[in-house]
Here is the input.
Amino acid sequence: MIINNIINSFGRNFFSKKSNLNKGIFFAVILVFAFSNLTFAADVPQDTYGDVLFDIGIITGYDGDLMSDKAINRAEMIAIISKFYPNAFEAYTPPKTATFKDVPTTHWAYKYVEFAYENGITAGKGNGMFGVTDPINYNQASIFIIKALGFVPEGLVYDSAALQIEAEYGLKLTIPTLGSSSLIRSDVFELLGKSLVMKDSSEYMPISRFVASGAEVDAYSSRITQIINTPVAVYLTGSFFNIYYANGDVYTGEFDGSHLTGSGMTQFANGDLYIGQYANDFFNGYGLYIWSDNENYEGYWLDGRFHGLGTYTYVDGAYQYGEWENDALVTPIEEVSDVDVANGVVQPSEFLTVILTDANGKPMKGIAISVEDQFSEIAYNLVSNTDGEVVVPLTGQFSVLSLVLPDNSAYKFEVTGHPFAATTAGIYKTNVTFVLLRD
Here is the structure.
């Protein structure tokens, strides 16, 4: 993948699309450093789902420690779930005979498990077993919580339960997680926290069971909503992170602890894609924005706007290339209109010629480069000719190509500052030029 190697005259509804672009991405993130001792001066919010659950009495922790990074088993999960029914649980008397062989009447979780069974939250694992010490996984946690809210999901398939519950009820973890993955306590806190501000089967928010007044409901709901809307950054390597947004957008790229700065890629939940340079959370420098219908802009940006040399290409292959300022084409250099396309003035190209030059425009011969078509996943290992050209076969009407120099290359792409770049391959696009600099 790319990051791993890392108008008016046309009568198009351009600006309605342009308004979809993300600008000023966020102010703070929750940082997750797996196997890393990195620290940042970012404005990391102190409030967490665990804090909210603790403050309203759903969890107590151990001597004040919520142990958020520790594993959690099925019995512990059920014990927390019982807090959703404070009055009913208090009044409940468990049977004298245990339902599950692994949860005898003397077990600390006996009342919790029997209460959950009685209320249809769990049916156990089968063969008379509850799985009391088994780690809780994403599928199981989702089922427990949604049933605790009084819902009875129909047609639920265990192996895809988390995905089905997300689709039907909107309950999900911000970081994409396999349904079979064992969760840690902070994951469970997240699901529980989010469920507190969902409407249950009686159209009430569960948060109202734990606080006395409407003002408190509003206050705690506001806290949870703020946490939900805070992106989560997961460390990858070097200066690269994955950043997950509540609406489903995912950024992969460079992040300085406070801002998106450097090379990156954002996959938008609506199907749009941006690959390129960022500065202070905006698209800045060279980049590609590709709408879900493959209409795209490739060129230079300034604070989230087209600014500098660039090409805007429409679905039918018509395009405008020239100098842009503040999203407007001010100096057209080359254009193919929809009329040209309709009248056959231009012919589809079967190849894209990538031209490599130095900073003075001199063709660079003998440059090894790997080019991968991101749609067909076909890769080509090529070497530039005397004109600095590599010719890439095209497999469809549109694609995105990743361009990667060898690990031992003495050069980097000027537009990215890295040995990798990306470009679009359109039906009437015949060539693109990249400047290489010594690394």
Notes: The chain has three domains: 1-45+230-345, 46-224, 347-439. The longest strand covers residues 282-290. The domain at 1-45+230-345 is CATH 2.60.450 (lipopolysaccharide transport protein A fold). Residues 214-228 form the longest helix (15 residues).
